[in-house]
Amino acid sequence: DVKVTQSSRYLVKRTGEKVFLECVQDMDHENMFWYRQDPGLGLRLIYFSYDVKMKEKGDIPEGYSVSREKKERFSLILESASTNQTSMYLCASSLSLYGYTFGSGTRLTVV
Amino acid sequence: TQLLEQSPQFLSIQEGENLTVYCNSSSVFSSLQWYRQEPGEGPVLLVTVVTGGEVKKLKRLTFQFGDARKDSSLHITAAQPGDTGLYLCAGVPLPGNTGKLIFGQGTTLQVKP
């Protein structure tokens, strides 16, 4: 069964900390995505990547960076966590335009 | 600008009732997808519709893509408590097919036993 695995289901971090969210897929997909999901705002794209070492900004990249050193791994980095980055973070991968496979999400709380 | 508008936003019904969720846009989409998300989990792909006018069935769920490829609907027949969840439509708008999905805001469905 194909999988996207996010390293943590729940995280609590302090304001100003550097936070790493890890995502690994076992489907050999080229495309990987990071979204955040907030009530009333839906899913918003933070960053995406179409290939190793390649990254593109999504709709809300401010305060975030990403790393894709290997095809199967796409990391989201919060350089200096702030309370407004408290959210559900979802990683997804896809082979084509016809469907994303999502991870189970990481619920991040910044205090 | 919200390219995909879902309605209704919330729906609470009794087991056995039928319902329809709508996903509308003024933009044309190369395809539209429907996902279901349960609390604390990521969205799970239910179906992708590609051709204008296409109808797909998944057990009690019927998905339709509008003829002009600007809208889609999800109809559930005889809803069950297991259908409870957040339903999301998503699509890749044309022109400029970048492969990035645009998501609707979602419809929260509660089916009471």
Topology:
The complex is a heterodimer of chains A (111) and B (113).
Chain A (H helix, E strand, L loop, with lengths): L3 E3 L3 E4 L5 E3 L1 E3 L5 E8 L3 E8 L6 E2 L6 E7 L2 E6 L8 E8 L6 E2 L3 E5 L1
Parallel strand pairs in A: 2-12
Antiparallel strand pairs in A: 1-4, 3-9, 5-6, 5-10, 6-7, 8-9, 10-11, 10-12
Chain B lengths: L4 E3 L2 E5 L4 E6 L4 E9 L6 E6 L5 E4 L2 E5 L5 E6 L8 E9 L8 E2 L3 E6 L1
Parallel strand pairs in B: 2-11
Antiparallel strand pairs in B: 1-3, 3-8, 4-5, 4-9, 6-7, 7-8, 9-10, 9-11
Provide an overview of this structure.
The complex is a heterodimer of chains A (111) and B (113). Chain A is mainly beta and 111 residues long. Helices cover 0% and strands 53% of the residues of chain A. The mean pLDDT of chain A is 93. By secondary structure, chain B is mainly beta. Helices cover 0% and strands 54% of the residues of chain B. Chain B contains no helices and eleven strands. Chain B has strands at residues 5-7, 10-14, 19-24, 29-37, 44-49, 55-58, 61-65, 71-76, 85-93, 102-103, 107-112. In chain B, strand 4 (29-37) and strand 5 (44-49) form a beta hairpin. The termini of chain B are far apart. Classes of the chains: A mainly beta (111), B mainly beta (113). The interface between A and B is medium-sized, with 25 and 23 residues.
Short descriptors:
heterodimer, A: 111 residues, mainly beta, three-stranded antiparallel beta sheet, B: 113 residues, six-stranded mixed beta sheet, five-stranded antiparallel beta sheet
Detail the poorly predicted runs of chain A: none
| SSE pattern of chain B | EEEEEEEEEEE
Secondary-structure-based class of chain B equals: mainly beta
> Based on the structure, what is the oligomeric state of the protein chains?
heterodimer
Mean of pLDDT of chain B: 92
Biggest beta-sheet profile of chain A: 7 strands, mixed
Tell me the total number of β-strands of chain A. 12
